[in-house]
Queue: 4 jobs
Job 1
Amino acid sequence: MIRDMKDRGMSNREIARDLGISRNTVSKLLRTTRLADHRKRERGSKLDPYREKIRALIDEHNLSAVRILEEIRKMGYDGGYTILKHYCHELRKDRRIQAVYRYETDPGKQSQVDFGEFGYIDMDGKSRKLYAFSMILGYSRMRYVEFTTYISTENVIRMHLNAFSFFGGFTDTILYDNMKQVVIDRKPKASESRFNQKFMDFAEYYGIVIRLCYPYRPETKGKIENTIKYVRNNFWAGRTFESLSDINVQCREWLRKVNSQVHGTTHEVPLQRLKDETLNPLSSVPAYMTRKEESRKISRDCYVSYKGNRYSVPWKYAGRECRIIEESATLKIQVDSTIVAEHSLIPGTGRISRKKEHFEGLLKAIREENSAVYGQMVETRDLKRYEEVS
């Protein structure tokens, strides 16, 4: 029994705990070469009465070992978790189909979305995790990639809209993994899952049908999985970047190149196949209103930086923490609960939006402050004091 448990990948500690013997005994028995002296004794397992139930729970609902443990505990099982976990692993291995069927979609029917993690980036003096949002059209293999440090539901929606604009429309369905921005509580049956209502409102607005990847079958969304790997190896590796904005500028240039090259699977150019995608046009419905919020610190020269551009703020808020809110084409700057500035979003990078009224009274305030400081430094003395010093 010990040898069998060891062959299944269990550690000496796990074997000792499940059999109620010491680790030294386990080690000693595993080291011996005299198998005849240590023949397996006919001994049942605490798991035996529940094996059929376990198999049914996996076949019918594909439950995890943790969930199965909860179910058989109710039935009286008082054994360990490790032996159950290994038994479930063996059942899944026998159950799973190893062959993969390459699923090709018709034009305009499906796209796939996923995120990849790309380390950390310094922004406004803070280290933030960097993500790559990626979408690929199933038929043409057109790719869209956008890097971000925020993966809130609002920002994910905004990046979907950016992708739709990049492609010139959207597909009937979109396939996702278990992203919390899409599905909050994933069940074996997708219809029983609890979805993110804010994201579902967005999908329903455009009439998009949400599809979820089947649990334990990442091959279902192989197109997007391969895209993330391709971004990591073909774009990210070996490049240097100055900022998040610079990453996305370089990424756009890279997308223009790779979408114009022959794809390894279709043996056609994605940009050419895009003409046959028959996407749903964005003009079919009014523009969806999006809202994105981020934290920033207002600089001493009264600006906040956003997407590579700078926007002015009233001078009395210099040095304060603020929230920047992007709504459609407008950027709002909020301090505490008050909107203190509004700007139209500037296209491109390296540009400045400056409002003259944000600096009114600043020079006067500086002069008054300097006058007060220097006035205190000048001391008036009686002339008799100078005669005494003489």
Job 2
Amino acid sequence: MMTNHIYAIGAALVDTEVSVSNTFLHNQAIEKGIMTLVDQSRQAEVLTALNNQQAKLQRQSGGSACNSVVAASHLGAKACFGGKVADDADGVLFAHDLAQANVTFYSAKANLGVTGKCLVMITDDAERTMNTYLGVSDSFSVDEIDHNALVSSEWFYIEGYLQTDDRRTNVVKAAVDNAKQHGVKVAISLSDPFVAQIFSNNLHRIIGEGVDLIFCNKDEALAFTNTDSTEAAAEKLKAYTKTFAITDGANGALVFDGQVLFKVPAEKAKAIDTNGAGDMFAGTFLYAITAGKDYQWAAQLANKAAAMVVERFGPRLEAADFKKLKAS
């Protein structure tokens, strides 16, 4: 019996978002536009440099899959999230934020150590660059997955970032097999071109003989399929998934509903921060299809949500924004 619309797993991170210049990224030897895994001392070093500039920092619970299920929950889906936090102030903040969003949080007993953190740096061109210290999320395990909740969910949504480690990949693979055995549909985000290319083998292990839905942007699709055009990537993706959505910023989205491949135009937006656009698209899309809408309708609503979120600082919308979105 289905009791949840979406059960998602991913890195449980506290996001710190800040505006920076291209010069700052250059001076700190930070590669722009991608997610880079760093250790605690390196992240602290960058934060010290930002504090020396008296930069304004915004903190809240985050992580890709977490952002998506928060959006889906605000829109009306019954959503759950599994992740690992430590017994520290950031772990408390993370759990509190999810409770406020009405997302059920499944986690093992709080651990010693440090809750993971993601430093999200936004440049004037609205591009986001991330330095991530996983903290205890690095040891994400089967203990963070509530299998009773999983098998009673309509969709199991997996964050591709979890596949940057073989041990975590084994944990996720077992959960995916369990989901498939119980008729739970499986969706996965490719997360980042770096993940899609460097950890392609782990993603292939998770996908196995195929999943039900893949979310990716154009760069991730090209990296994963080793192609040089969105159209070629779309054809290759059909071998791995029943359906998919490839987002491409202002160019809209290319969506395959299992029968028809179609383009959905983007909503006009004046982007100031693209962080969270893909997460918002996925969360809104999952809400729509669990509400019984078709893929065309889902992609149109998801594009509207993504356009709204890029016009403000931070990866999330307010409750009033979701209400406006549902009424559109």
Job 3
Amino acid sequence: MAEDIPFNKKLDLVPGQVDEVMPGVRRVLCNNPSPFTFKGTVSYIVGRGKVAIVDPGPDDAAHVATLLDAVRGETVTHILVTHTHRDHSPAVPKIKAATGAVVLAEGPHRASRALNVGEAPRLDASNDTDFRPDRALADGEVVSGHGWTIEAVTTPGHTANHMAFAYKEPNVMFSGDHVMGWSTPVVAPPDGSMGDYMASLEKLRPRRETIYFPGHGPQITDAPRFVAYYILHRKAREDSILHRLAKGETDIPTVVRAIYIGLDPRLVKAAGLSVLAHLEDLVARGAVVTEGPASIEGRYRLAG
């Protein structure tokens, strides 16, 4: 299923170097590669002279130094944060201390709703629970700077506070981890919600931005078509789960083994949480039943 998405895993960026990917957009790669971050987090600098930084990245001294060197002689007026995972927002305090920029985001890290995910390990280590923006942005709110205009676009799903940023002048989108060119993101309850995630994808599909700059990996061209592929992929994943449940009641580890063939062992926990997100959504829609609230240890069967 994922193979049907036209992924692009070519990223000619080197940590510590500044790349002007298009007029008005510079990018810097952090040296934090992993199965979740691909070659690392990509931070963006918007504009010239008086600029905004999108996703300063992790608390990595070398990356912070590269970002600050890149804007030497310029004024950083805004810091925009797509979401509060630890590979995107922990560098904010150091960048703010050095520049005095105002920090803008949807809000602090939080669960998308109350959910009993059981005793299985969660991805809490990835959450920047200390983050607080100077000001929370509302959906559709516009932030303007020197020669640039950015619209805040709420895109919950990967996290409850995920927000994309539409850069109006070149008609591009900073998509964070909501849409990436190299892979699909993990949607892990309780911070993530599959229902919210699918709704956010449908929200992006009719938009006019044709290029997305994600938090990891290369830029995405023909973005609306790529979003459509994402939606089809998630629906196919849901169909695979339902197909397995049609064989009888089962649990999440069994579903993961059935539908994630050749999975990197380091991603098994994340895959289980993603399946939980799908099952939670299916339970809410009445297609699947389980005893009590959806949880990582629960057993699931088709309704009816």
Job 4
Amino acid sequence: MYLLDLAINEAWKYQFLTYPNPAVGASLIVNNKLFVAAHKKAGEPHAEVNVLWKAFRAFHKTPLLQSSSEIHEYLIKNHNNFFNDAVMAVTLEPCSHIGKTPSCANLLKILKPKKVSIGWFDPISSHSGGVEILKNAGIEVKVVNDKRCFDLIEPFIKWNKKRFIFFKLAQTLNGVITGGYISSEASLEWVHQIRDKIDLLVIGGNTVRIDRPTLDTRRINGKNPDILIYSKHKNFDKTIPIFNVPGRKVFIRDNLDLLEKYNFIMVEGGEKLYNEIKNFVDWKVFIISPKINSLENFKSNDDIEVLHVEKRDDLILWGR
């Protein structure tokens, strides 16, 4: 379970950033050394490939390869049974299909580690079958069915079926959400990375009028999501920066019907919007800054199931 714990924790570091792929982590022990890695971005190597390559490079002189296809090919040609005594854990069943990247299950079949523990079966039927591929290759396979691994891929399951919506809220330790930037520079950049992945960002009308935000991805020079301003009152000062970001649409609506047209949606707002929409969203993500502020704190009655907590410069808490 320790190996799977490490893989789960690593995968959470890239939650949402792998859209439209799931967040997946992997860990590996080979030659008495431990390695941990995750899938970082759609189109790039999967978690299994990253951890295998990381381990192989620690013991061998290798070229600097980045694409999944190049790494697969190199490992297949040069593994020389290096992984035969390795023990591995991965949060999601290794993929059997060939898409933008080659099949991880087929790579493992050739590299033949001693044992692979798998946290959860792949929910996409056309991608599944990895377990049987490994078993047929003589690899010891254990499917753990760890709920934490399901939690990791819940956004992926939902945005593939219809949509996934989460509310993001930054606050101090004592629940203050006003008074300018609250979270750290690293957290602000992380939010911009997430905005680069989402299809739609929902914001309340009062927040737009008071904060006069931009809500773009300037910190990473990314893609700017479409904006839905949820407001009963349609009049806004169009010099507010949110209206002047090129390459995106800004909608002003008094309903949430527009959400039906998008797959991956983030809601940013204050107390009023949170309390209105908290039972409608799939997840809540709290960025908790290690500060105490004398301003009035955020108020809500809400029971939250904690999915994961990560310590960065701020605390990141994912819940539903």
